[in-house]
Specification:
Elements lengths: L1 H40 L6 E5 L7 H17 L4 E5 L1 H5 L5 H5 L8 E4 L2 E5 L5 H11 L5 E9 L3 H13 L3 E5 L2 H10 L4 E4 L20 E4 L10 H11 L5 E4 L14 H10 L6 E4 L2 H9 L4 E3 L6 H6 L10 E3 L3 H13 L9 H15 L3
Parallel strand pairs: 1-2, 1-3, 3-5, 4-5, 5-6, 6-7, 8-9, 8-10, 10-11, 11-12
Helix pairs in contact: 2-9, 8-12
């Protein structure tokens, strides 16, 4: 009897898994059809900005980039029709979107790509999407918002290099010195500039008048994580001697995407949480930027690659006392003690919007 019950339970679990798989495929198919319809239905007689690669996952850094890119487009191209494209639908062989857009996107339309860790071969379809769009629209002006660039495969690097460098109307922005050097090699005839992450345009825009207590650890849990949990836990225990410690990440459980109607409010509520603390310790690049937006001192920890460490270089000479890179967890402890003992009010200025993004329009307009 027990064996029969176990077999029934096992068969029931298999049936549930199969049902969930079918439901997921149906939902994916429905989403593809709806996204195709929405994109094509939004095209009209107006010149357009096609924004490729909108983030459809719940990472607050990527979504903050999306919000800032939209803000930049609306500020500098207010009369153009903004049309947003999901990379996974565009690249899905079951979707007709790529084929149908070839007859819809006109030479005068502008193409802008999502910022982030996208020009890489570590996973996802973003770099392949870049290549496909560049091959399909050789005469359109294109703006690649600031990228981290990294390739493991020589073949993938060479293919990307060939296609990117062949596009004569591309402005490529790299968001750190290592990525900039790589991009310059990839595009020997290209128009490459080193540019800060667009989320830095939020720094200096907001003041948070609230009582600050505690220390926030904003930590990643992925392949870029360098320190072991027990090492980080030991640092947290040491810091509890000075104040209470809390932790969260910029990748969240809620289903918030670029299409969420309350995205801007959700993002600003999320960023404002960083203003509740006396100090932030993070290995997230956008955790660093969110701290500066929230006017909170931040210590930046090492990761397994160059993205965070070289990204912090942007803040040297600008917010020197408010953001510090730690070479080790022992050094992070020393820096944390010093920052917690200070009694000062931070007022970060809107440096990056003034010095970079208010000038990007003219830089892009020079691309012919």
């Amino acid at each position: 009897m027990q064996k029969k019950d176990r077999n029934s339970t096992a068969n029931g679990n298999i049936a549930i898994r199969l049902l969930n798989k079918v439901k997921n495929r149906l939902n994916k198919g429905i989403y593809i059809i709806k996204h195709e319809h929405d994109v094509l239905a939004s095209i009209d007689d107006r010149p357009a900005v096609f924004y490729f690669g909108i983030p459809m996952h719940s990472n607050m850094g990527d979504l903050a980039q999306c919000m800032c890119i939209r803000n930049w487009i609306q500020k500098w191209y207010p009369t153009l029709n903004l049309i947003e494209v999901d990379s996974k639908v565009f690249m899905n062989p079951k979707s007709s979107l790529r084929k149908r857009l070839r007859t819809k996107i006109r030479k005068e339309d502008i193409i802008i790509f999502q910022s982030g860790y996208c020009t890489q071969d570590l996973g996802g379809v973003e770099d392949l999407m870049h290549q496909a769009v560049m091959e399909d629209y050789t005469e359109n002006r294109m703006l690649m918002m600031p990228q981290t660039v990294f390739f493991n495969s020589i073949e993938r690097y060479k293919k990307a290099s060939f296609i990117y460098d062949a596009h004569k109307h591309l402005l490529f922005l790299a968001r750190d010195s290592v990525s900039y050097d790589t991009a310059c090699r990839m595009l020997p005839h290209g128009n490459v500039h080193k540019y800060p992450d667009i989320v830095t345009t939020l720094i200096g825009k907001y003041q948070f008048n609230r009582t600050r207590n505690g220390i926030l650890f904003c930590l990643r849990n992925d392949g870029e994580k360098l320190y072991k949990d027990e090492e980080l836990d030991a640092l947290k225990e040491r810091l509890k001697e000075f104040d209470y410690v809390e932790e969260f990440d910029t990748t969240i459980q809620e289903n918030i995407t670029a299409k969420s109607p309350n995205l801007n409010d959700y993002l600003m509520d999320f960023i404002s949480k960083f203003a509740d603390y006396k100090l932030v310790i993070t290995d997230r690049y956008h955790g660093t930027i969110f701290s500066l937006v929230a006017q909170t001192p931040v210590i930046v920890l090492k990761t397994t690659d160059h993205k965070v460490q070289t990204g912090v270089d942007w803040f040297k000479g600008v917010y020197d006392n408010n953001v510090v890179f730690a070479d080790s967890l022992d050094q992070a402890l020393v820096i944390a003690k010093d920052m917690l003992n200070r009694n000062y009010v931070i007022s970060n200025k809107p440096y990056f919007e003034c010095e970079y993004y208010n000038k990007l329009y003219q830089l892009f307009e020079e691309v012919k």
